[in-house]
Design goal:
alpha+beta, two-stranded antiparallel sheet, two-stranded antiparallel ribbon, about 40% helix, disordered N terminus
């Protein structure tokens, strides 16, 4: 991160570069209420239920681009060219609602290169 700061040309406004997500740039995140958080999680869980109802096997696995692991195929969500497991997709949607991340690509890169804990949600 410091390398970017050194290489970055000064701007008139010195606004953080667009490639930095809001959290890294120190922009206060949008606080989600407990109800809003629960609603996002509930919606994301419906993708699991829908996949299972459509016949996706409970034990079927797929590779998640964000957490880089084989995860239950039921509930995977495609974002652009990335496939996110249901848990990562939920983290992404919450982070997006909070204004912490603007793209799935950014989220995947953060997860892969060690910034994943910034998006971690509590287990329920
Ligand atoms: Zn994942």
């Amino acid at each position: 991160m410091n390398g970017h700061a050194v290489l970055r040309k000064p701007h008139a406004t010195d606004a953080p570069p667009a490639y930095l997500n809001a959290a890294a740039a120190g922009v206060p995140a949008v606080a989600l209420s407990t109800t809003q958080l629960a609603a996002i999680r509930a919606v994301m869980r419906t993708f699991v239920d829908d996949d299972l109802a459509r016949g996706v096997a409970l034990q079927a696995r797929m590779f998640c681009h964000a957490c880089q692991q084989g995860r239950a195929m039921a509930g995977f969500i495609p974002y652009d060219r990335y496939q996110l497991c249901n848990w990562c997709a939920t983290e992404y949607e919450v982070a997006r609602a909070r204004g912490e991340v603007q793209s799935a690509g950014r989220f995947v890169r953060d997860k892969v290169f060690g910034e994943g804990p910034a998006y971690a949600l509590d287990e329920e």
